[in-house]
Design goal:
By secondary structure, the protein is an alpha+beta fold. The protein has one domain: Alpha-Beta Plaits. Helix content is 36%, strand content 23%. It has helices spanning 31-47, 74-92, 94-99, 121-129; strands spanning 5-6, 11-12, 14-21, 50-57, 61-68, 111-115. Strands 4-5-3-6 form a 4-stranded antiparallel beta sheet, with helices on one face. β1 (5-6) and β2 form a beta hairpin.
């Protein structure tokens, strides 16, 4: 479960849904690879200000629900997770290194989305609108 992260000048709840496909969409996430991935993610949590709320593997891709701090933009989070997990999986799972003959574990691309703790875009939009009775639409076409 996510919690507010308190720093000296801010309080944040930044949650991201990230999806990383395996290189060539190869079916590589068998039980041992899944276990290694989750172990590496727990190590990442200890070293960086990133918390893995959920990790779900499918045969050829992984879904992450991650909480982080504003100092880490999405690209930095993705790069960090991809590089650390790939290095360890390829090292600890030689069968995967053989299967992915190119030496890379993840595709270059990824999916990223923000996740709201207290509601979706419409709920938060309505909340913001109700803060001031003199609210004027920022975009006339909404």
């Amino acid at each position: 479960m996510s919690e507010s992260i308190h720093k000296s000048h801010n309080v944040t709840v930044l949650i991201y849904h990230l999806v990383f496909p395996a290189k060539y969409r190869s079916v590589v996430f068998e039980e041992h690879v899944d276990k290694v991935l989750k172990e590496v993610c727990l190590d990442i949590e200890k070293r960086y200000q990133v918390k893995f709320l959920e990790i779900g593997t499918d045969q050829d891709h992984v879904h992450f629900l991650i909480q982080s701090i504003p100092a880490y933009n999405v690209t930095k989070i993705v790069t960090m997770i991809k590089s650390l997990t790939a290095r360890e999986i390829l090292k600890r799972c030689p069968q995967v290194k053989k299967q992915l003959w190119g030496g890379e574990f993840w595709t270059d691309g990824y999916y990223a989305s923000t996740v709201g703790k207290h509601g979706n875009e419409n709920t938060i939009g309505d909340y913001v609108k109700k803060q001031d009775k003199k609210y004027q639409k920022l975009h006339k076409d909404r």
